[in-house]
Model the fold of this input.
Amino acid sequence: MVGSNEALLDEVYQEVILDHFRNPRHQGELENPDASCEVLNPLCGDRVRVSLRLKDGVVEDIKILGKGCSISQAAASMMASLCVGKTLEETQKLAELYHAVMKGEVSVDNAQELGDSLAFEGVRKFPARVKCALIAWDALSRCLKSKQT
Ligand code: ZN
Done:
């Protein structure tokens, strides 16, 4: 769903966000995933389901099934692109770092390992939309937690 403040958001829409929204990576759902979690953002109508396959402590594959605004869907696509091939520990650290950046606790300069996902830092100017940029990562974190217990 596209809100009426979409025009305002133009200034935070870096090309990399539009690219991932128009050509989302890692779309679909894994068969027999090791973990699968869905997070909703009722404020905006976004929904992201993350399914995850692990092998030998490494995130072997991630698939995204989502619906919603460009921020939520582009963030999910970038999250999957960044985390596939990383170890569980690295993935957990990236998720924590991304949350810290979106909360303003860590500066972009100290979070370069997030790569393209740093494009969402500009969304912080629109607090109502920060959740859009976080739901894919929230779903990922829940998947990771479910594998730790
Ligand atoms: Zn949204």
About this structure: The two ends are 35 Å apart (CA to CA).
